Amino acid sequence: MTKLYRTTSSNGLRLRASPFDGNTLTVLPNNTKLTAIDEQTWVKVLTPSGEVGFVLKDFLEPDTSSTAQSNGIVIYESKHGALRSEREVKVHQDFVPRLEFMEKEAKARAIELFITSSLRRPNAPVTNAIVTPAKMSNHFVGHAVDLNFIFQGKWYGSRSFREAKPLPNEICTLIEAIKGNRHLRSGGGLLHTGLYSF
Q1: What residue spans define the domains of the chain?
Q2: Nearest Cα to 157, choosing from 114, 117, 122, 124?
Q3: Highest mean pLDDT among 83-87, 94-98, 102-106, 124-128
Q4: Which residues, at least 6 apart from 171, have a Cβ–Cβ distance to it below 8 Å?
């Protein structure tokens, strides 16, 4: 996956022809967006103007702005007012219609979807998982979300699915609607309530 950076040196950052003491090609203004080609202590980069050179990694930070993503990852914004999360919901642009479908179906039943996890890196720790996280997960490419349901002020997560009590009909019909969509499936059973596209 391509790494994107932006410069963080207020006095400008030298773009060198080679690491350490290479000739200065130009001085990059603060907040210049760069694409990493190779990196160690020095990062080989491609500038927006097409120049290739080296910059010191100490003066770079990952560029996570949605406009900088060249790998199709976007930040999903609720389209129907039936989705919330404590963090940005990052998914691949091809998964956006799947989230819109789930959100529309949830809103029709007065259910709110609470996203607990979306895009994540391989080997990233996963908290509160009720199934062992897969080593090859659709989360790694932005084609998965983990979620819980909120209906009439009550939270329906993994514990609710383990209890013997019947779930509200609205949640049951939402799950059936999602299962009926050929582009979605549930991972780890209904207890997981992680939904992702094929």
Answers
A1: 4-68, 73-197
A2: 114
A3: 102-106
A4: 109, 111, 149, 151, 156
CATH architecture observed for domain 73-197: 2-Layer Sandwich (3.30)
The vertex-127 CA angle with 152 and 60, nearest 5°, equals: 115
- Under DSSP, the state recorded for 106 is H
Q: What is the pLDDT of residues 25-40, one digit of tens each?
A: 999 998 888 887 776 7
Return the number of other C-beta atoms located less than 10 Å from residue 83's C-beta: 22
Would the CATH topology of 4-68 be identical to that of 73-197?
Answer: no
Beta strands in 17-166, from DSSP E residues, in sequence order: 24-28, 33-39, 42-46, 52-56, 60-62, 73-76, 83-85, 89-92, 111-117, 144-151, 154-156
Q: Is the dihedral of CA 41, 44, 47, 53 positive or negative?
A: positive
H-run or E-run covering 173: helix 169-179
Cβ neighbours of 71 (radius 10 Å): 12
State phi, psi for 170 to the nearest 5 degrees: -60, -40
pTM for this model (two decimals): 0.58
10 vs 129, which has greater pLDDT? Answer: 10
Would you say domain 4-68 falls under CATH 2.30.30.40? yes
pLDDT in tens, 132-169: 555 567 788 888 888 889 999 998 887 777 776 788 99
